[in-house]
Amino acid sequence: MRSPSGIGVIDKSVMIMDALEAGPATLAQLVECTGLARPTVHRLASALVHHRFLARDVRGRYVIGSRMEELASAAGDDQLVSAAGPILLKLRDVTGESSQIFRRQGDARVCVASAERPIGLRDSIPVGTQLSMKAGSAAQVLLAWEDHERLVEGLQGARFTPTVLAGVRRRGWGESLGEREPGVASVSAPVRGPSGRVIAAVSISGPIERLSRQPGRKFAPAVVGAAHQLTELVRANPETELR
Q1: Where are the domains positioned within the chain?
Q2: For a tag on the chain, would you pick the N or C end, based on fewer CB atoms within 10 A?
Q3: 120 pLDDT exceeds 90?
């Protein structure tokens, strides 16, 4: 058992999360494992569920929540970005359009790497830009393979529909026309970690006049190919997902 930090509420919360490393547990099992009072475990576990550090499974047991996965993914950003650089540059040169990588962070998606079209009209998305999870092909891709609860939540107020996300899952890529910004089209494909979970989206974006009204038909093979390349690099270096 690790030594306490002296901050009681944090130490007790960590004890609860440590207890769940072995798998799902009921409230009674958490009380037995941690030695904490039942009201204390219930209060802390409820707060951790609220912040998505814990969740409840179909049997009502406590399990590690999705926020832990998001933080683990964010910890691997530097490695992902390093691997992505040459792939984004090649994708930009092949398609002639700006290319980006997005990660989901809570209710937003964040551009963690980009290669902008050097000349002419372009869709400029600097690294660090936060965009909505309610519009755009990258948002579609980052949401399409989520669990049912987060899928339903993500669709509330979205500019795409369940049918659109079903198409993303079937094809393995998404496209958008003016969803995020009038006149802008995009195509995105998923990057997967060693476990198969979607950890990022590779995208190209630019004016509809160049990408056409069916950008996926024209550019999906190149975008999917870039996403597959990055997935293979991530799987060869599991720390990108798990650190």
Answers
A1: 8-64, 71-242
A2: N
A3: no
Q: Which residues contact 195 (CB under 8 A, 6 or more apart)?
A: 241
Measured CA to CA, the distance from residue 110 to residue 8 in angstroms comes to 34
Segment (H or E) for 93: helix 77-95
The distance of Cα 33 from the centroid of its chain, to the nearest Å, equals: 32
The confidence score (pLDDT) of residue 213 equals 95
Say whether 71-242 and 8-64 share the same fold. Answer: no
Topology classification of domain 71-242: Beta-Lactamase (3.30.450)
* Closest to 222 measured CA to CA, from 70, 43, 76, 99: 99
| Maximum distance among all Cα pairs of the chain, rounded to whole angstroms | 65
Average pLDDT estimate for 19-37:
90
Tell me: the pLDDT tens digits for 178-233?
Answer: 999 999 999 999 999 887 889 999 999 999 999 999 999 999 999 999 999 999 98
Name the CATH topology of 8-64: Arc Repressor Mutant, subunit A (1.10.10)
